[in-house]
Amino acid sequence: MKIYYSIDDFQPLPYAVVTSGTFDGVHVGHQTILKRLQETALRHQGETVVITYWPHPRLVLKPEEQDLRLLNTFEEKAALLKEHGVQHLLRIPFTKEFSSISSQAFITGILVNKLGTRKLVIGYDHRFGKNREGSFEQLKANAPTYGFDVEEIPKQEVDHVGVSSSKIRKALLEGDIATARHFLGQSYSLTGRVVKGDRLGRVLGFPTANLQLDFPYKLIPAQGIYAVTVQHEAHRYDGMLYIGNRPTVDGKRQVIEVNLFDFNQEIYGESLQVNFVSLLRGDSRFADLEELKHQLQRDKEAALQILRPS
């Protein structure tokens, strides 16, 4: 998949099959659109193109809503789109100036002149252009003039799965990992760099890698202990992840730390991808470190039952 970070970098294709959207999470509803995109491209010997916007439009248009958290970084989204057969990914920088472009200018200036769009595939109720004035009806009525066909994915084809990025965010914030995974079609993940902590886990017999996330808008699931799998370089490990303020030792800030099973390497500064499998329990305060240690042993046993069922 080729990624373009500017409209000017894109050269028109002979037969571009295009869709556009934020695609946060690349969930099963998005995947319905991407599957149709790929099928159409194969039928016409064309190439698939996804237009996406970064940063997320809400962060630009509604800066007061700084509580918005996203399911994907751009890099995560790009990797998922590649998995679903996208050949060209155009990342348009979303600014207030861009948001004021009329739907007509978007169609002629970007879809037609820059991309060479021959087929446009959109989800139902897709809106675009200044004040969301552009619609499927407008596109359909003027398709011969624009020189491309437009197809709208029917409402029922997406609605039957009952999915939205907002529902996935809500599930994760409630620790409902099973629902989030069902809607996403894959595990939710966090990627972070390993930084030095106070080594409390090592004292307890459960050494942890403390993760620092470099993307401030990444959604962090509910506080608690999770069964997870962890990707480090080319290897996958089982483990358990803690998200919380460490109330037993009067912690003052939220930490994200993962205990990798059967692992004893020093990996400070390296990257880990954590994939959420199941919530084991919520965060709790314990009477002392010895009680916490016993609970961590029970947590590990519970995680192993989930990750390595007999």
Key words describing this protein structure:
six-stranded antiparallel barrel
Q: Tell me the radius of gyration.
A: 22 Å
Helix content: 25-40%
Strand content: 25-35%
Give helix and strand order, one letter per element, not per position: EEHEHHEHHEHEHHHEHEEEEEH
- Give the total of beta strands: 12
Q: Identify low-pLDDT runs.
A: none
**For the largest beta sheet, what order do the strands appear in spatially?**
1-4-3-2-5-6
* Helix/strand class: alpha/beta
Question: Could you walk me through the main structural features you see in this protein, from its secondary elements to its overall organization?
Answer:
This protein is an alpha/beta fold. The chain is built from eleven helices and twelve strands. The strands form two sheets. It has a six-stranded parallel beta sheet. A six-stranded antiparallel beta barrel has the order 7-8-11-10-9-12. Helix 8 packs antiparallel against helix 9. The radius of gyration is 22 Å and the shape is elongated. The model has no long low-confidence stretch (mean pLDDT 91).
